[in-house]
């Protein structure tokens, strides 16, 4: 390699490594039975996915508490490399996260962002507004509601550009 190419490539490599180091690690480990499909696809073909494991996330729509469990309806979004929902992306369906026991709705607020790890447990037909909808059901093993600070973490405030500036 010519020395001038090395001088240009070295800073780019350092910057790439620095940006990669800023991204938090995924919060849940995938299992051999974890499938990477969106809820809308599972709703269309539930028999194809059976009782596979999933790691899904999105925006909390509502919480319903029952005698022995709670259900959190979630508008799904794709996850980033740290398993945070990409809420500025296109939604990828809805799902119901079934959790054992009582879930405090103040800890799972409508509009909040959540990531769950669990096992598919069939589907249920319900409504979204006036429309009939098929919701995949996830028996949740672990869940995490994201804070605003966590959503910003790992996103360095770095801008690149070329231009002329005037300082007065």
Could you explain how this protein is built, in words?
By secondary structure, this protein is α+β, with helices and mostly antiparallel strands. The protein has a domain of 114 residues: Nucleic acid-binding proteins (OB fold (Dihydrolipoamide Acetyltransferase, E2P)), CATH 2.40.50. Helices cover 21% and strands 36% of the residues. A five-stranded mixed beta barrel has the order 1-2-3-5-4. A hairpin with a 3-residue loop joins strand 1 and strand 2. The chain is globular. It starts with a helix and ends in a 16-residue tail after the last helix. The relative contact order is 0.18. About 12% of the residues have low confidence.
Brief synopsis:
With 168 residues, the chain is α+β, with helices and mostly antiparallel strands. The protein has helices at residues 3-22, 39-44, 46-49, 148-152; strands at 53-65, 69-77, 94-100, 113-128, 131-146. InterPro entries: OMP_Slp.
Number of helices: 4
Q: Which fold name is given in CATH as the topology of the domain at 39-152?
A: OB fold (Dihydrolipoamide Acetyltransferase, E2P)
Question: Cα-atom Rg, whole angstroms?
Answer: 21 Å
State the end-to-end distance. 44 Å
Strand order of the largest sheet: 1-2-3-5-4
Gross CATH architecture of the domain at 39-152:
Beta Barrel
Poorly predicted regions? 8-21, 156-161
Shape: globular
Under the CATH scheme, which class of the domain at 39-152?
Mainly Beta
CATH evolutionary superfamily of the domain at 39-152: Nucleic acid-binding proteins
> What is the helix fraction of residues, given as a range?
10-25%
How do the SSEs run, as a string of H and E? HHHEEEEEH
What proportion of the residues form beta strands (DSSP E)?
35-45%
Mean pLDDT: 84
Biggest sheet statistics: 5 strands, mixed, barrel
Structural category: alpha+beta
Count of β-strands: 5
């Amino acid at each position: 390699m010519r020395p001038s190419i090395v001088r240009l490539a070295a800073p780019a490599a350092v910057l790439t490594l620095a940006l990669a180091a800023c991204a938090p690690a995924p919060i849940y480990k995938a299992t051999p039975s974890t499938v990477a499909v969106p809820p809308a696809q599972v709703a269309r073909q539930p028999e194809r996915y059976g009782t596979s494991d999933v790691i899904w996330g999105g925006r909390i729509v509502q919480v319903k508490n029952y005698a022995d469990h709670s259900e959190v309806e979630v508008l799904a979004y794709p996850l980033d490399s740290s398993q945070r929902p990409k809420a500025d992306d296109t939604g990828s369906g809805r799902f119901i996260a079934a959790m054992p026991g009582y879930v405090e709705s103040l800890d799972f607020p409508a509009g909040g962002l959540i990531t769950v790890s669990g096992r598919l447990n069939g589907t249920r037909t319900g409504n979204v507004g006036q429309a009939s909808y098929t919701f995949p059901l996830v028996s949740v093993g672990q869940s995490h509601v994201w804070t605003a600070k966590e959503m910003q973490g790992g996103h360095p405030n770095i801008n690149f550009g070329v231009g002329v500036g005037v300082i007065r």
